[in-house]
Structures are given as structure tokens and as C-alpha cells.
Amino acid sequence: MRQQILVDMDGVLADVYAQLIIFEHRDSGIKLNIENMYGKTELEAFPSFEKHVRSKGFFRTAPLIPGSIEGLKYLNEKYNVLIVSSATEFPQSLNEKEEWLSEHFPFITWEQMIFCGRKDSIRGNIMIDDHPKNLSTFDGERYLFAQPHNMCVPDRNYHRVSGWQDIIRLL
Amino acid sequence: MRQQILVDMDGVLADVYAQLIIFEHRDSGIKLNIENMYGKTELEAFPSFEKHVRSKGFFRTAPLIPGSIEGLKYLNEKYNVLIVSSATEFPQSLNEKEEWLSEHFPFITWEQMIFCGRKDSIRGNIMIDDHPKNLSTFDGERYLFAQPHNMCVPDRNYHRVSGWQDIIRLL
Fold this sequence. Notes:
2 copies of one chain form a homodimer.
Chain A: E1 4-7, H1 16-28, H2 42-45, H3 49-53, H4 68-78, E2 80-86, H5 93-104, E3 113-116, E4 126-129, H6 132-135, E5 141-145, E6 159-161, H7 164-170
Parallel strand pairs in A: 1-2, 1-4, 2-3, 4-5, 5-6
Helix pairs in contact in A: 4-7
């Protein structure tokens, strides 16, 4: 039987930092620099975080993380893939996330999508996520997808991956 | 630690049969009779099932199953409740279901909501659902919520409940 792998959306498939930088620039004219965000939470890095992620179109038009299409295709041929995304905190994101996923990853079926609040009741063998809070309650293999907010998180409990090329190499 | 209970939406909280009868009457003038539907699947009972459930507003304006508000409030005080709803097959239902749930059950937080395709990867101790296909892969206690389509399903693998008064009595 294939192993089941839980793949996060924001910060793993969708480039939320790039989108936050675009929205900040659009709204205030300020060009934020990603190097200044290492080790800060998303809320610390983006004072208007809440406003942006609740804006219409934020999730629908998010740029892709480089290599995510090929990478997810690779996983989907080898594993039982479930896309598990925190979405109910920002309810308008639900339809936007489903549409975005179906547009960019048409090989992912509706049966492979889970939109939730917390991820600690979803079963799997492997989890890829950029948030330690999601990985910490997971009892399988844990892959921490590098993002500025998790740069200072110690790696002892996770396999840290710097991008999709790492995932393909390791999995 | 509290036991975790997975509660289905359609057919347990939302009265999908009542809504299908309303939509059928609105569209074709035909008044369908629920007694003629016993033992038939929803697709057999409602020839326009697919059209109705994909209609704007179908889930947003669904009537409540009698006793569901008091019943869910009762469970929510005693158990760790997760609302687990099949939604991604009909993507427009995602936002409608979240809004409907938040309107009628404001004591359910965003952290307690899961919208998915299949339910076989959601962990819990108890599951309440009207579809045997969801209960059959669940490894905890299984409660089959009576609906016309499951009238002929044998009860040997499930506790059959005829409504929310039964749930409150048994759980």
C-alpha cells in the first residue's frame, strides 16, 4: 500500500511571502525585503498581514513556489497525496484555494483536498509543512519547508527542505 | 482527555432532503414525497440531484435538521467536536457551508471545521454520519443518522439513530 503524504498549500505550493510583498507594495507603496524577515513570524514581518490575507483575491492569485508543479506531480505518482490546508480561519479563502489548486494542479482531484482549521486530526505517514505548529502534533515523518519565519527553528525534530528539488531528492 | 466526535453536516445538521424537495418544486413544479424515497439513493430519488446541489444558494439556505442546534450544543460541551463535511466535490459549497455553519452554530469555531473530499483520513473516537461509505472506513464508534437513502442498510455495523433526540440519549 502506498504511503500517505500530507502536503501543505501556503508556503509550500503557494508563495505567500511573494504575495504579501506584492499586496504591501500595491497598498502602501512600500517595497519590503525578504532578507529582513528571517526569524520573524509572518505577523511581525508584515504589519498588514491580517488585512492582506483577508483581501479578495489574495489566495486566488498567489504566485507558485518554484518547482511545485513538477514536485507535486512526482509525489502524486509515488504516494497517496492529500493537500491539507488551513483555510477556515480566513473563510473567503476556501473557494479561492480550491480554484487556485484546480487551476495549477489539475492532476489533484477533489478527493485529495482537505480544508481545515487545525491539522492535528489528519492521518498520514509523511507531512510537508512550513509551520512547526502543524508538524509538532504529527506522528509520522516531518518535513519542514524552509520559509523566512522558520529559519531559526531547530532542525532536530524535522527534516528541513529548502525547496522542491530537496523533496524530490529525499522522497 | 475528551473523546473526539466527528459530526457530518449534510443529512445530520442540514436537511438536504427538505432542500432538494424545495428546489425540485421551485424548478419543475413537482412536489416529491419523501415516503417514496425510502431505500433509494439520493440520485435515484432526485433526478436533478446534481443540478440542485451545484445551484447557488443550495447549501447556504438549507433548512436545519430538527433538534440539531440543541444537540450539537450538547455534544460540544461534552466532546471534542469536529464538523467534517464532504464539500470539495461541489466546490461552490465550500463558502456556503462555512457561512451556514457559522450562522446557525456560532459556538462552533473555525478550528472545528473540516471540509474535504473523503473522510477516511480524519481521526476520531466517534462518528455520526448518514452515509455508510463514510462510516465503513472509520475505526471508532459509528452512528448512522437515519435518512431515506439508508433505510435498508443493515444495522449490524452501526448504531442507528433516528434523530438528535436519540444522539442526546445515547451519547
